[in-house]
Amino acid sequence: MRRLLPVTDLTTPAAAADREWTLDELADAYAYPDGGLPWLRANMVSTLDGAAQHDGRSQGISCPADMRIFGTLRGLADAVVVGAETVRQEGYRPARAREAFAARREAAGQGPAPAIAVVSASLDLDFSLPLFVSPLVPTLVLTGAAAPPDRVRAAREAGAEVLVAGDGAGVDPARAVGELAARGLTRLLTEGGPRLLGQFVAAGVLDELCLTLSPLLTAGGAQRIAGGPAVPVPERFALVSLLEETGFLFTRYGKI
């Protein structure tokens, strides 16, 4: 892996080509900002022609280095925010504790693993899955005040904590971030899907995008990384860092 940006770091050992970075080096490169305020980062992967998935899943356009960064971002987060459709499609399981991040998490006052926070208006979820009944850290469910009472009850009976983050049937993105921050979960990571990311973008609450650009062309009608209605005025982000390995580009963009 090579660091291409920022250029001031090109003389450091971590900038050397043809060497796998350690998890500590990756964790330093992707550290959350200090300050204690909520920080929502997204981690997504896209092909050269804009596809966020292949055959309905993101794994087919990923690579080992991308998965190491994926694991690192999880290892740094207080909570991973994910949409219900992605939970169903990707077969989400509970986050696990990893020894490589144990000391770093303990020093930051974090638990052994990030909580998974599932955003769902209908709560049309299988609450018998390990994500809900046997997580290391209780799974959170973010929903609206008008969510079906029987599904709210089913979620709670499975052991999930239900957080109301909307006055109607849907979830307000800004309120979702606030509800998590109120529980001390300020280092937030969303892994999608595209619909959820589009909602965060439209609400103006996304602080950072970590985007892997995969050197693949897939054509077809696959989703982009963000869906939903277009924003009235595009929001500008700045390139913070750029890593490269085997043709994959690992970008990090921050809100200006």
What is the secondary structure topology, with strand pairs?
Elements: E1 2-5, H1 23-29, E2 39-47, H2 64-76, E3 79-83, H3 84-90, H4 99-107, E4 115-119, H5 130-133, E5 140-143, H6 149-157, E6 161-164, H7 173-182, E7 187-192, H8 194-203, E8 208-214, E9 237-245, E10 248-255
Parallel strand pairs: 2-7, 2-8, 3-4, 3-7, 4-5, 5-6
Antiparallel strand pairs: 1-9, 8-10, 9-10
Percentage of residues assigned to helices: 25-40%
Number of helical segments?
A: 8
Low-confidence stretches: none
Anisotropy-based shape: globular
Strand content: 15-25%
Strand order within the widest sheet? 1-9-10-8-2-7-3-4-5-6
Distance between the termini: 27 Å
Largest sheet: 10 strands, mixed
Structural class by sheet pairing and helices: alpha/beta
Mean pLDDT: 93
Order of helices and strands: EHEHEHHEHEHEHEHEEE
Radius of gyration equals: 18 Å
How many strand elements? 10
